[in-house]
Each structure stands twice: as C-alpha cells, then as structure tokens.
C-alpha cells in the first residue's frame, strides 16, 4: 500500500474511544458554527521512505500569529469551492506549492481556534524536495519535520499560559529548536490519534 492509500485508510477508519481535541478551550465547543470563520490548512506529507510534513514559520511583522509555526492555509474565501480548494489555494500562495503536485487524500477533524476560526485540515501527499518559494510578506521559512516524530505522542507536551486574565492550557511540540504550539500543535495531536498505522 502506498503512502496516499495508507493515509486515506487511516483518515476514514472508525476511531472508537479516541478523544479528539475540538478547540482551544471548552467555550468554543458551545459556539454556533455561524459564529466562526471557516478556514482550511493543508497538511502536506512528503512521499519519501521516511515521510515528512511541510510547515511554515510566519514572518515576525504580521498582526496575528507573528513568528508562529503553522500549516499553510487561511480563511475559506467565497470563490473557494470548499475547504480543499481553499487549502490548496493558500498553499500555492504562501509557499508556491503547485495545486497539481498535491494528491489530496482527505480531511481530518475540524478544530476551533480561540481567534474565532473553524479550521479543516486537508491532508495531501506531495513529491519530496519540491522547490518551494515562501511568500515574502507572510512566510519567513518553510521546513519539513519527520511525520513519525510528529505522530509520536511522546513528543506532545501540555503547557499553560495566562491569556486575557485566565489560565489556558495548550499543546506544544519542540523540534530542532522550533516550537510548534497552539492550534497547529493541537491539530497534529488530533492527526496523531487518527493516523495510527503500522
């Protein structure tokens, strides 16, 4: 079975008894979908013997999420047919990943962010070593993390911080001096719980 088929099978398999994270905090689960902005991210998995996941580091001058590690993605625009189209468009805009180079295998569990987005992760397989070009304004760098590392729950840590007068807990993953945290880390935790295969 090739990588795309393995990922596809893992995404559709029943996950009985597995607890998935629905959002940055409990109150988000109570908000109506029409109170949230639909968004999508692409989870680009490189098709190599030891697959990796392509992530971006956002530029330091952005108003929101400056310097954070993220999947390529953003809000679903009215002209986007669906979450898949939005994720592919955003990945092409942000890192120059050609839409035709992505084999979409499916979508993962939606995640609600504290900033008011409901994010659909779109999982796709891409050829390794594509010449990706970060959008200068938005993306400081593009890098790849081994998929096995991200899926290993031993690398997922809970942390806490004070935010708007309340203690908030969040997930974080450290890799080669880079800190993946917040919604991106939480979506990775969800993926690790769903993408279990041997």
From TrEMBL:
<feature type="domain" description="Nudix hydrolase">
    <location>
        <begin position="36"/>
        <end position="166"/>
    </location>
</feature>
<dbReference type="GO" id="GO:0010945">
    <property type="term" value="F:coenzyme A diphosphatase activity"/>
</dbReference>
<keyword id="KW-0378">Hydrolase</keyword>
<keyword id="KW-0460">Magnesium</keyword>
<keyword id="KW-0479">Metal-binding</keyword>
<dbReference type="InterPro" id="IPR000086">
    <property type="entry name" value="NUDIX_hydrolase_dom"/>
</dbReference>
<dbReference type="Pfam" id="PF00293">
    <property type="entry name" value="NUDIX"/>
</dbReference>
<dbReference type="InterPro" id="IPR045121">
    <property type="entry name" value="CoAse"/>
</dbReference>
<protein>
    <submittedName>
        <fullName>CoA pyrophosphatase</fullName>
    </submittedName>
</protein>
<dbReference type="InterPro" id="IPR015797">
    <property type="entry name" value="NUDIX_hydrolase-like_dom_sf"/>
</dbReference>
<dbReference type="GO" id="GO:0046872">
    <property type="term" value="F:metal ion binding"/>
</dbReference>
<keyword id="KW-0464">Manganese</keyword>
